[in-house]
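User: Structure please.
Assistant: Input sequence and predicted structure:
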Amino acid sequence: MGAGQSSSSGASSSRHRSRSRGHHHPHRHHHHGSRGHWSASSPKSVGERSAVLKKCGRRCFLGPGRSFPVCARLGSASGGAGTCKIDRHGVQAAYSRAREWAAITARKKGSSSTAAHKHRKYTAIARRAKSLLSRIKK
């Protein structure tokens, strides 16, 4: 019985050690880079997007309506807030999201004509974002 107790306590302590291993690396999860910047300054709500559209116009949106915003929201604390300046991180986010949705709609393209239309829409947005990125990149 004494040997059984020591082996079970040894197993729990080794399990605890392996589980806690990742907690000793506070800098491990900081690989996001640009994603954190755009996430903080993007116009998320309909009201924020409407305010950007009213002040800055269509140039701040790559998609139809208020979709695929590329300018920072007006009240954000980041540099360029309220200036209607196109944000490089916003263009990168729009490009990657448009490519993602183009791939999703490409799988459904054969089943309906609306999926084919959506696929063309997303690929056009991705093309626009890519050309915008090539002009913005330093």
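The chain is about 60% helix and 0% strand.
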